Amino acid sequence: MGNWGRRKSFLLIFFYIIIISVLVPWPIESCHLVDKTALLDFKRKATSDPSNLLQTWTLTTDCCKSWEGIACDSNGRVVNVSRPGLSSGDDFIIDTSISGTLSPSLANLSFLELLDLSNLKDLSGPIPLEFGKLSRLSYLFLDTNKLSGSIPVTFKNLYQLKKLYLSDNTLSGTIPSSIFEGSLSLSQLGLSANQFSGPIPSSIGNLLSLTKLDMSLNKFSGSIPESIGRLKNLAYVDLSENQLSGRIPNSIGNLSQVVLMYLNQNQLKGKIPSSISGLSSLVFCRLSENQLSGSIPPSIGNLPKIQRLIFENNKLSGKLTATLGHLVTLTDMFFSNNFFTGKIPSSFGNLQNLQTLDLSRNKLSGEIPHQLVKLESLQTLDLSFNPLGLSRIPNWFKKLKVFRLILAKTGIKGKLPSWLASLSLSTLDLSNNALTGKLPTWIGNMTSLSFLNLSNNAFHSPIPDEFRNLSLLMDLDLHSNKFSGNLREFFSKNFQDPLGRYNSVNLAYNMFNGPLDENIGNEPVMASIVSLSLSHNPLTGYIPKSLGNLTILQEIKLAENGLTGGIPTELGNAKELKTILVSNNNLGGAIPAEVLNLKDLQEFDVSGNRLSGRIPPHKANIPKSAFLGNHGLCGAPLPPCKHT
């Protein structure tokens, strides 16, 4: 609708109200006629209002006295319009929506100070340019809708604006530099989860009153402007999940009031500036998923309030500075997947509040400092995938109170130490080492385990009966060992409802034998399983029909076993299946159409069997190679069947 169309609509409502007021006598109302007309025009543009948020907005009532969500000043001018889709009280929560567009006539509310149309979910279309006329507006909340287009350049005229939230829409384009030149009162700016692009304007440094800045989840590019260091009142800054590049500006150290700083998931390069020591209020710092390089500056040890450092997934290198041990308030250190070298500093033993120490996937070497035994608050210790050359788990580890111990590929050899049973571990990952021997019977005493990974070792022999005592175990990975015997202990283990039902089981590349129990899919412990991998074992017998009862199973791998019989039609009842791998067995018969036409099927391989008949028509994109080696199969994607 053009400007004339909008003006015509507004005038029609305006004159209708005047005519009604002349013909129908009613008490003089305090609501100003212009304001009432503007609000009714917004209501008229609402195409759906399922919870009747605007029900009280009627022509015959006083907008200042009777309309919900409206507040007026003493002169009958509307100063507050508040109709959010999400609100709560002492004993209720309202979560609703309104469909429609933002009426430009709302700009006629010339005394408006607060406009809250947030969380209405379905407001669409652009933000009207006319909103720039709301010169008294202090609070504008339009977040969590479906608004599109760009931020009106007229917003530069909103000199009184203190809080602006446009997050969670589909707004796009660049941010006009002029917007930040006049909004000197702005204290909170929320632009997250849109499609904004281009650079962050350097004029953002003019927002000297800003305490909260959230521009995350957009497509902003270019460097973080040096002018950000002028925002001395900033307490919260989130620029994560954009396409920002360049270095972290040295001026960042001027932000002495910042409590939370998230710059993760960008393309930032260079070193962490030594000026980081100036962030004296910093509690949460996340720089992960960038391309930061060089060593961590020793000045980082001067952060007096820091609790969480997340630097994982970068290219940081060099030795871990001993000054990290000065951060006695630190609760979480996530430094995984970098290029750190040398020893773990003994000063880490001073981190009395540390709960998580994750140094995995680096190049750390040498002895683990025994001073870590002093970390009485430590819950998670992950040193995996470092060339530590441990040979054995240090005995002093038995004094730790950790719940999660992850030492994959750290050079551990020999048998499992029996003192592991004395720890209350929920997660134990010793995969990719050189552990040998039998799985000890005392494994059944580790009744707190929910995650156990001993894969890629050299364990042998059957699983002990005591394994069934692991009643909280939900994720099990023993693949690539030399375990033998049948699988009965795994699928008849105890559980503590609702815990202890399997989520994933990987027993591939072992020497388990015998048939699969025909009732495996009916076992209560299997009811929640998502992934089952038994490939590369000398199993025999049929694929159990009961596997079709596993209603949330997504992945089943039974390749390179000795299975016979057919592919059960019942497998098509497992409606969530995405992956079915049964290649290189001795399966015969036809491929059931119910299985090949599972709606989520992505990966399917029956090659190297004795299947026959026409391949059922199917929508999934299955390559020809997935059917090869079955001389009796025909039909797309194999050659067509011959008619007899």
UniProtKB/TrEMBL annotation:
It comes from the Eukaryota. Residues 35-73 form the Leucine-rich repeat-containing N-terminal plant-type domain. GO terms for cellular component: membrane. Pfam families: LRR_1, LRR_8, LRRNT_2. One of its GO terms (biological process) is defense response to fungus. Keywords: Glycoprotein, Leucine-rich repeat, Membrane, Repeat, Signal, Transmembrane, Transmembrane helix. It is found in: Cell envelope; Membrane. Gene3D superfamilies: Ribonuclease Inhibitor (3.80.10.10). It is a single-pass membrane protein. The chain crosses the membrane at residues 9-28. InterPro entries: Leu-rich_rpt, Leu-rich_rpt_typical-subtyp, LRR_dom_sf, LRR_N_plant-typ, PGIP. Its main location: other. Belongs to the polygalacturonase-inhibiting protein family. PANTHER family: POLYGALACTURONASE INHIBITOR 1 (PTHR48059), POLYGALACTURONASE INHIBITOR 1-LIKE (PTHR48059:SF12). This is Leucine-rich repeat-containing N-terminal plant-type domain-containing protein. It comes from Anisodus acutangulus.
